[in-house]
Amino acid sequence: MSGLTYGIYAAGQVAATAGPPDDPAAIDRLVGGLSGGRPFVVREYLHFLGTPADPEKARVLAPERRMRELTMPDRWYGTGNRRLDLVLCYLPDEYDIDGWLAFIEQAVRRYGAIARFLQITLEPNFKLPWIDGSSPGVLDALTTGTCHARRLLDAAGHHDVRLGFSVAEPPEFLGGDEEFWAHLEALAPADFAAHVDYVGLGLYPDAFSPVPESALAGLTEHALRQLREQSMPRAHLGPDVPVHVAENGTPTGPDRTPGDQAARLEIMIRTVAAAATRHNVTHYELFGLRDADSARAEPTARLGLTTSGYQPKPAYDVYRELINGG
């Protein structure tokens, strides 16, 4: 559909919610079934947890292990027309920019040759636990980290890596994010905006609160328009800077059947595709491939196109058909 490049978060864990271990063979088969050899983005997350890291967060998120290997072997991300979208998350309990910059250096050394997109912070305008916007110093982490990452990528010759950040929009979804955009507005373009290749959008209009299906298209279009026309210009990011829908999903659950999930996803994806040219949206990444834990009822546990045992839901076939131009 349209000129979008599609993708997915292929692992199972969602913040602190984790069920069965990831199955690389199932991931390979299911991702291959979606992409059909077309260009396809695979999203992964690395977490900076402070110096020293909070022990409980480190136990859950295993940042040292993931710095050694992501969900799949390195070579997998560079074959089958796949493209790695690597998110560096800032989640310390105390302000720690020095440690954060060292973490970025480590990540660029380890994955700079593999990644095609490098995202600095996850939703720094969103103040919820386990999301970067709740972390002390997140605005400095975004702006200083982006400039630092650009220098590192250029010095290493990784000129094909696109550098960006993601936000959750629109502000009424969050309770307001004026402080965030005012901070970016006050910066000279050379100090931040000049280093940004794209802006990611975390788009969950109905995942965490009840929304009529009939409202989804309007809410999706509103989020894209808000980001493009209101927020990005404040940060000196013009219409030439593309938007990536970096995360979008809707769960199954006690009040949401697998058929409901499929229908709602189709509405949102078709809305994004229809608005892509108007808002310069170039990428769409779905969250995610499988449920974190299908035995649990909360939305974050059941966002997948498959169960946590990799049994496809109807939404899997819907997404595959949309990718194929359906």
UniProtKB/TrEMBL annotation:
Protein name as it appears in the record: Uncharacterized protein
Organism: Actinomadura viridis
